[in-house]
Amino acid sequence: MATARTLFESGLDAAKKKEWAQARDLFARSYAIAEVPATLLNLASAQVHTGQLVAGAENYQRFLSRAHTGPAARYRAEAESARAKVLARIPHVRIELQGGGPDDRVEIDDRAVARAVVGTRIPLDPGPHTVRVMRGANEVDRASFALEERDEHSVRLVAPPPSIRQPVDSPHSASESPARDASSARASRRRWIGISIGVAVVIGGVLAAVLLTRDRDDGHTGNLGPGRVSYGFDPGLSW
Question: What are the CB-based long-range contacts (under 8 Å, 24+) for 217-222?
């Protein structure tokens, strides 16, 4: 508690100097040690002052959900007013996704989001953002945009259907594909020769000779082609 109080008071000093980024960090560290409502309220204020509108609004709401009794409750009206003002400033984006597969994931600024939010208004902080669709380690589509306060923005992403010929998370790099194809071709050729010899046992040496000659002449490697697969104190507040 002594450490949490020291961090909190240092945060107040930084806030009085309008050093909001430092104040935000100090309040966050204090709250991580002791979840005191007054600290949470100050943290929300510092977040809003540094452009983190979404997190600030969420922490105002957390304060309101906890500050029903005790000294902190007298600040409920101020917190409600501050939260309402912040909510009015938050921009939103609506992501529309066309196509894609069940295992594709949507990321906003490199953080995965639930597919259920696709098609809904998503609150984001003002500033630049990137939305993309990922299939395994591969990016199949992306869109970059910048938001101003109160913006309502839409983004449309298009993802092709997953390939049915090759697993999307293949452990092989593109540079290995030719070697893999060549190896598959050789294996296919050996299978074909084996089958031809088996047939020859039944129907005679003449037909076997014809099949082996055709394989050698036209490079036939099977009907799929080479390499193909089928697959929680109250020391004061700062405003």
Answer: 220/192, 221/184, 221/185, 221/188, 221/189, 221/192, 222/188, 222/191, 222/192
Give the tens place of pLDDT for each residue, 155-212: 999 999 887 544 445 444 444 444 444 455 455 555 544 544 443 433 343 333 333 3
Beta strand 152-159 with 92-99: parallel, antiparallel or unpaired? parallel
Please choose, from the candidates 139, 168, 155, the residue with its C-alpha nearest in 3D space to the C-alpha of residue 97: 155
At 181, list the tokens.
């194809």
Distance from C-alpha of 24 to C-alpha of 13, rounded to nearest angstrom? 11
Q: List the one residue out of 217, 163, 160, 219 whose CA is nearest residue 189.
A: 219
Q: Which amino acid is at 149?
A: E
Q: Which of 51, 20, 55, 19 is nearest to 148 (CA)?
A: 51
**55, 25 in Cβ contact below 8 A?**
no
Four-residue CA torsion sign, 30, 32, 36, 37: positive
CATH 1.20.140.10 fits 2-89, yes or no: no
- Whole-angstrom distance, CA of residue 91 vs CA of residue 129: 12
Distance between first and last Cα of the chain: 23
| Token pair recorded at residue 89 | 């400033």
Q: What confidence score (pLDDT) does residue 100 get? A: 86
Threshold 0.70, pTM exceeds: no
Q: Which CATH number fits domain 92-159: 2.60.40, 2.20.28, 3.40.50, 2.60.120?
A: 2.60.40
